[in-house]
Amino acid sequence: MQIRAKTSTYDGRLMQNAVLGDVPRVRVGRFERVGRLLMRVLDILPRAPALGPVQYRPALVAFVGAVAAVGAVVAALTVRAPSDWATLGVGFAVAFGEAAYAIRPLPAMQTLWTPTVFVQLGLSLILGPAGAVAGAVGETLGFGVRTRNGWFRSVFNAANIMLSNLAAWWVFVQIAGPAHRNTVVDLLAGLCAGACHFAINHGMLITVVRLANPQVPITTALRSEFSAFPYSLGYGLAAFAFVVMHRQAGVAGFIALLMPVFLLHGFLINFARRVHAFDEQRAAYQKEREELLQKAVEASETERRRIARDLHDGVVQNLAGSAFALAAKAAELKSNGEQADAEILELMEHSAQETRAAMKDLRTLIIELAPPTLRREGLHAALVEILSTLKRKGTNTTLDLPPNLRLREDRAALIFRVAQEILRNVAAHAQARNVTVELKRDGGMAVLRIVDDGKGFTPRQVQRRRAQGHLGTAAIAELAEEADGSLEIDTEPGKGTRVTLRVPVE
Length: 506
What we know:
The longest helix has 108 residues, at 229-336. The chain has helices at 2-20, 30-42, 58-78, 85-100, 116-127, 129-147, 151-176, 183-212, 218-226, 229-336, 342-369, 372-377, 379-392, 409-430, 459-467, 472-482, and strands at 396-400, 434-442, 445-452, 486-491, 497-504. The chain is α+β, with helices and mostly antiparallel strands. It folds into 3 domains: 1-43, no CATH class; 54-257, Arp2/3 complex 21 kDa subunit ARPC3; 374-506, Histidine kinase-like ATPase, C-terminal domain (Heat Shock Protein 90, 2-Layer Sandwich). Strands 1-2-3-5-4 form a 5-stranded mixed β-sheet. It starts with a helix and ends with a strand.
């Protein structure tokens, strides 16, 4: 896809310059057109991710080398010029095409599906060793284009498939014989050929997997490969039909027998493209949603800081001035011995005290709106600051945070807001003796758990508080859901409360 996109951009720039007269018009040659057409054809399906590099262990290299050598010797001793070049060419092209357009059943899966075993068996039973080699080479080249296997894997695949095809052909000939007059025997021969093909092909694959990664349990490798066994039996059972159709109609019979496979594979290709397009659209929507959520959180934090700054620079300073003026005036009246009403002096002093108390409450609100500790020192210090309020009231507190947990700024802010709201409710209503705050990472999720041994509450009490306008818990639950997380509250009267917040780390 990248090559095609770059080519289109380059061509568009050349044509634009040609119209403007900057450069002469470029004529596209025939071979270049063919190359572009081939690239577009190959890009019908999304590109499979490239396999990782091969670790050339001595045992692995020796085994693959032995398989390749045996395959080369057997091919040299058995392959002869085919009796039907047309069928050979069609079979090679079909094996290549089926492998090049292998279907990924699900986007998250690494395996690819293709009915090439059916083609391999049919080509081998019709043309013998020549068909076995042609099918193996075609499939290896197709998978090389699809998955970018590299030369080492391609050599092993070609030798493995060729030996499997030759063994299946030999078993079929030994059981069915040259005459093919007994349908039951032919069916049994095809069934045995499919089983033989599976045993050799997947047996070598399991061996290579174990040699490449000895830590893989043999049971895991067997279970993974054995899932293809029923398909190999079914392909082998139907493979004798190639012999019958080819004997009756030659290459036309061969193509006719493959036509249902073509149609099914074409449908699956179209289906895979639609699934891929849907996944790309969903990923783009999810990315846009996360970006909007990030901007919303950042805007909320910015607005909180602005309100806190305005309160500090405006209202708090005015209250401080009023408190100072009231206290100074009352002291002045007393010191000068001027006649003043005792009630007025008491009112002025009381007003100064109330103003200072309002200043203190406002400063607390400012810290809650935009805690400077969270920005300067991080989540741990901010949570310690919240818990210190509970400690001063006689509640035993415990804080457990991993030292190396890294969170995005918006995630840390969300966790802080939830902890702040829950601990505020604990201080105001729970009458708890002990409170535990724990934050840990569970896979890709950050999990905040707050447990207290307070009096708990009932759902009816929550509904009554919401009706009275207390929406704190509902608000933080909505924030968690917007961040693709969840908020769970487990409580019962007399048995305390457990609050669990789960949000994605990324």
